[in-house]
Amino acid sequence: MLLHASHSVLLIIDIQNKLAPHIHQAAKVVNTAQWLIEVARELDVPVRASEQYPKGLGGTVTPLAELLADNEILQKMHFSALKEESIKDHFAELNRQQVVMVGTETHVCCLQTAAELLENGYQVFLVEEGLGSRDPQDKKLALERLKQAGAQIVSKEMVAFEWLEKAGTDAFRKVSKGWIK
Q1: Domains of the chain by range and CATH?
Q2: pTM higher than 0.85 for the full model?
């Protein structure tokens, strides 16, 4: 199945100030999330971010927070974002069946959120280079488990090209600027 911008939402899970420094390849995770936010904005794909207990883990890291409006950041206490009724209702109101996910930690909050999204009939696309855990082995196991459950493992460029659908448009020129050196 292919992604469609008109059916998608970008979900950023818990890339927060006190957790990010401990994530394997954190800079790559943050950069991927930042790039996808910019692509999503260009193509009118809604963006939402969750924060797990921000009182303890801090807010969303600055490079991402600067790109998000206050109403796009959703607070949670459960590991799965869908366990929060307000977030579950929010996603239902968006009426987008494809969820593109990046975030931390892959084997905890990302895994539990993705599993519940799948159980609730959403199509889940996990951006490999935009997901992180403290231990890379935990990330690997989580991705294997989620793939078996029906999630699609994708790259950021797969997402962008599927959202774009064709070359030659203004959106394509903006998004692809800098891809080819």
Answers
A1: 5-176 (3.40.50.850)
A2: yes
